[in-house]
Amino acid sequence: MPPKTRRERKAEVAVSTTGGSTRATQSGPVSSSTVPAQQAPPVTLDYKKLNPKTTHYEFGGPIGAFLMITILPCVVILFAFGCDNIGYTPFHRLWAIASDLIAGRFEWEFLWSLVTSWKAVALLWYAGFVAQLATFSIAMPGDTVEGTRLRDGTRLSYKVNALSAVQTMTTMTLMSVRGQGLKLPLWVHANFAHIAVASVIFSFIVSIGVYVYSFFGKRLLSLGGNTGNHIYDFMIGRELNPRIGNFDLKFFTELRPGLVGWVVLNICMALKQYVDLGRVTNSMILVVLFQAWYVFDALWNETSVLTTMDITSDGFGFMLAFGNFCWVPMMYCLQARYLADFPHDLNIWHVCAVIILQCVGYRIFRGANSQKNTFRNNPENPSVKDLTYIQTKSGTRLITSGWWGMSRHINYFGDWLMALSWCLACGFDSIIPYFYSIYFLILLVHRQRRDDSKCKEKYGEDWDKYCEIVKYRIVPGVY
């Protein structure tokens, strides 16, 4: 597919649709809007009507929200400290610690030493990384594009410059550390667990900040995060689009710190392997290359995230802040971490299998998303003009052929195949590197059900008719 021009990328965000994303995944109904532009919003807005009380809970309600807030950070810390060159046995180590605690074999002084041994400089390093990325995102020039129309009638403007911001930050970092050799990446590898704790702390700071901020002034809240229950609203996100001036916190968080941090950690792990072996194994090359390719694709198509459910309907709270500041970089680099600690080379057939699975997954993922974006913006384009669709009462079109005639979330299938290929590159000596593909499968199924529920609410009978034509949810012929 030829690179998109700035005009084409700008046009991608001119149409409103519901959707959702994790990492760079696009979702939502496969639709193209035909609704004409509305009149300018009134000068005085009734925020009581714009922000109705949320009566429907997701994710198990307040109890589920509490468990997510408490358990997920513990999982990150467990994998950070429970995986090293001795072995990738986080659950075994957890059981050993729990057994000792129950039996009273741990002294409080020893438990307290585990807390005080954390290196606070890791928080400084992590905060510096995010601050640099935010600074260059603000300072570097970029296309200004409009997001989808909000329910108050406005459209927010966004600066699209992820690639130039990352390129500048990379250049400045390399210039700053030249002469130090590989000291910095080796330090990152040695202190990964401490950095993981720092990312947990940072995500809580951001989450608390935006939650408190949402109570000051007149804010457009998310329809799903205004229950009045502090735990649930904190987790799901109360304000829809918190901003500091023109700097949109949710848009910045959605792709940049998590995905860029993921690649940075991968590179540090590869350099650690190089120092230990004097070379980089083919398995590490495949993992780092394919995951960097995935991240580059997401940043190159940055405007696509503006039509996803994360941006258009979800509030910005702990779920998105923790997911992008902590979970994505710290858990998604698991394959590179494993290969740094347990390096191995793949035989030619194994290499071919990984490459084929990656390419097939990417073809499905990018082909489906590109087809949807083209249909949204230019239904008469020769590549999509013969697609069949359902014209809904809301004014949008639901595609019933092409990629989107195979399943309602065919892009999820391609996304998961790529995730599986990265895990396969780690071999079969440990199940832990496969945690990502297992977790991601559960996440995509849950996201599909959540998205379909929102589409049912939006399209009503038209969605039922669409589901009768496109029967499969994610995997054609299977699910």
TrEMBL record:
It is a multi-pass membrane protein. The lineage of its organism: Eukaryota, Fungi, Fungi incertae sedis, Mucoromycota, Mucoromycotina. Keywords: Lipid biosynthesis, Lipid metabolism, Membrane, NADP, Oxidoreductase, Steroid biosynthesis, Steroid metabolism, Sterol biosynthesis, Sterol metabolism, Transmembrane, Transmembrane helix. GO terms for molecular function: Delta14-sterol reductase activity. This is Delta(14)-sterol reductase ERG24. Pathway: Steroid biosynthesis; zymosterol biosynthesis; zymosterol from lanosterol: step 2/6. It is found in: Membrane. The chain crosses the membrane at residues 59-81, 120-139, 160-180, 192-213, 277-296, 316-334, 346-365, 416-444. Its main location: membrane. Residues 15-37 have a biased composition (Polar residues). It comes from Phycomyces blakesleeanus (strain ATCC 8743b / DSM 1359 / FGSC 10004 / NBRC 33097 / NRRL 1555). Belongs to the ERG4/ERG24 family. One of its GO terms (biological process) is ergosterol biosynthetic process. It catalyses: 4,4-dimethyl-5alpha-cholesta-8,24-dien-3beta-ol + NADP(+) = 4,4-dimethyl-5alpha-cholesta-8,14,24-trien-3beta-ol + NADPH + H(+). Residues 1-39 are annotated as: Disordered. One of its GO terms (cellular component) is endoplasmic reticulum membrane. It is an enzyme of class 1 (oxidoreductase). Its EC number is 1.3.1.70.
